[in-house]
# Entry
Amino acid sequence: MQYFNLPAHRYVPWLLGIAVLTGCTTVGPDFKAPDAPAVARYTQGDQPASTPSADIGQGRAQSLEAGQAVAPEWWTAFGSPRLDTLVKQALHDSFTLAAAEATLRQAQQLHAAQAGSTLYPTVNGRLGASRNQVNAASRGENGNQQTLYNLYNAGVAVNYNFDLFGGNRRALEALAAQADYQAYQLAGARLVLAGNVVTTAFAQAQLGEQIAATEAILKAQLDQLDIARQRFELGATAKTDVLPLQTQAEQTRAGLPQLRNKLEQADHLLAVLTGQAPGEADIPRFTLADFTLPEHLPLVVPSDLVRQRPDIQASTALLHAATAQYGVAVSNLYPQIDLSASLGTQALTTGALFGPGSMIWALAGQLAQPLFNAGLKAGANAAEASLQAAGANYQQTVLEALRSVADTLRQLENDAQALQALAVADASAQSSLELVQQQQQLGAASYLQLLTAQQQVQQTRIDLIAARAARLADSAALYQAMGGGALDTSSTPVATPAARR
# Structure
């Protein structure tokens, strides 16, 4: 057997020589992570080092600690053991995380499968037998003589593709980047899940206390309405004084079902987030007093944010994959070399299958160079455009991350100022109520004036409850905007549906 007029025993070393001389070439650009954003701050103007304080629950001042690392279990900073338990349950039992983990394993196994079939030669064994009949004419002889015989064979075949220009290596690089992307997606899903549990718990506490305050307002309004009706029956007031009070009370009553509906929806959401059916879940009821506002909040500098947030890391992985895919498309423009070899035995009887003279072997090689294929260049151009799109998407992801941090920082400051003002308003309403109570005891104020003062206190309290919850939610949002710490995707195993049952 000869190729290119070379004896078979010299063909393989000659081809290996070509591979050694050219095999170190990897076409296409090598991936380099983009530079960190060249910005020194998140917002225009100077960012205050701390937020305003208010002498009330969730009203303490919060300092922003530049460069402080974000704890992986950042939700523990709110000081609620029941909340910690709920978050851990969600991270363990969430079907969303189970799906994300399975997708990560799939990406890792696809990379392993591709590596096994491209980095190493493929070796296949074969064993066969056939029953054959030939006649004299097939041998160039006259007559009708026919010959029957059995043919047995056994052997091993080896195939290998020399990755001369790195196409296979680039393809593996792209699959590895896809696996990294899925790992960052899992980390991002964990961060979002923990954040949803925390903020929903805050919302549940807010709604529960707002319902209690609204019920107190309704009671005061109904008392006021009852007095007005009595005065109307005695002829001391007109009907026009009764109807507005009735309208006000019924409007307040109509708001209660909406608040209860939102509260029940929060319970249902917490159940689903923790992997439970809403009808069978045991969800705790929180109050705002169950939570402590973190006194110190981490503030990762912009240059470190790109290494902290899972969404930016995931976008970086997609950029890496697009770079490698472009290398694959470029490598298709260059020659490809495939080698194959086989070694075996062939005999007419099984007893002679491995005997003397039964050995057979073959060596083969093929070098393919595209001479004309307009589609290959177009494919490379398409891969280059995909790389440019991935780069633009990465830059947009970074900008969105910077914006989310900027928004959260401003919310921290503005909501702290709002709580500070509402705390003053609450104190003023309480003082007004105490003054009316004293006047009412002395006969200088009517019971209606007392009820009005009580309503004012309760209405201010509703706004105050919302402001306290907002400060808690702002703090959680900052932890999320900072990336939530270096979450280890393997630290908390995700239970599969089968395991949970």
